[in-house]
Amino acid sequence: MHTIISDHLSKEFLVPKKSEGMLGGFRALVTGAKEKVTAVKEISFEITEGEIVGFLGPNGAGKTTTIKMLTGILYPSGGRAEVLGFRPFDRSPELLSQIALMMGNKTQLWWDLPATATFEVNQALYNIPVSAYKERLAFLSDRLQVADKMNTQVRKLSLGERMKCQLIAALLHQPRVLFLDEPTIGLDVVSQVRIREFLKQVNEQYGTTILLTSHYMADVAELCQRIIIVDHGTKVFDGSLDGLTTKHDSDRRLKLSFTQEVIQDDVARFGKVLESDSTSAVISVAAHEVPKVTSAVLAALPVADIGIEQASLEDVIHELFGERTSG
Ligand SMILES: Nc1ncnc2c1ncn2[C@@H]1O[C@H](COP(=O)(O)OP(=O)(O)OP(=O)(O)O)[C@@H](O)[C@H]1O
Ligand SMILES: [Mg+2]
Predict the structure, then answer these.
(1) pTM across the whole model
(2) I need a labelling partner for 236 at 20 to 30 A (CA). Which of 209, 230, 244, 257 fits?
(3) What is the atom index within ligand 1 of the atom nearest the CA of 68?
(4) Structurally, what CATH architecture does the domain formed by 250-310 represent?
């Protein structure tokens, strides 16, 4: 049995119809004219128990909308969602007791009270025995290094501390499936690393299935054996990180620095210019052409130093979306 199934999931929103100019806008208000916006378009994937899957894509791609359908917050316009054998939108207590959703940019904690107030509500809600609750809270708060913040009003916590508390709130009932929508957004590198390590541990120790979105490549590279990329509501890639970088393995970044100023056009002759100023440039070159291009560049330009790098995941994703939008 698959833990998460998204079968041609689609979501359309009705939004006020866009009209030209002020008068048009006014008319739209009066008539209440609406138009359909497709946020998610027939996205299909299956996730097996224990997997950590990265759900990636540019702003507005449809990631949050998909997660909301998988957690029963939004009703799909089309297709089928299934989590642990349940339809999420039915919101059956049996399903809700086995899943959790944490959104990095939206606090689910009571603002004016210490985080423990929210934790206690969850304890009652999920029928967690007091002893187990205390044990888990001690364990989680210790691991996330916020044990000394348990009596502080949520509004007084730092962003990182608050997000760690949100993770605790999500994990107290030991869910089998964890949905994380940008769990490290806005955090400094140290906090990001800590949360990453923590999630890895949770996955290894309890076999928790995790679907997470993030705009940070390090999250993805560290945590996810598999990634799904969406763009404009459509799935454009599903596979291993290696698979993605190998598929787009053909490009190398040639980093050049010069002993004196060079003209842009002289550099552009050798490959696609990714970055440049008067005394340095980065160009993209097909892997098999690297030897040829390198010697040509050395012969033609006053090269002080030359470096060759493989395209990063960020480059690859950029390339992927670039292709789609330009094609
Ligand atoms: N309630 C809503 N009403 C109308 N349009 C919506 C609603 N929610 C989302 N959308 C639109 O659906 C599209 C997908 O939004 P979504 O939030 O799923 O993107 P996302 O991939 O999570 O982006 P981000 O990386 O910025 O969080 C966007 O164009 C958004 O404006
Ligand atoms: Mg989002």
Answers:
(1) 0.82
(2) 209
(3) 18
(4) 2-Layer Sandwich (3.30)
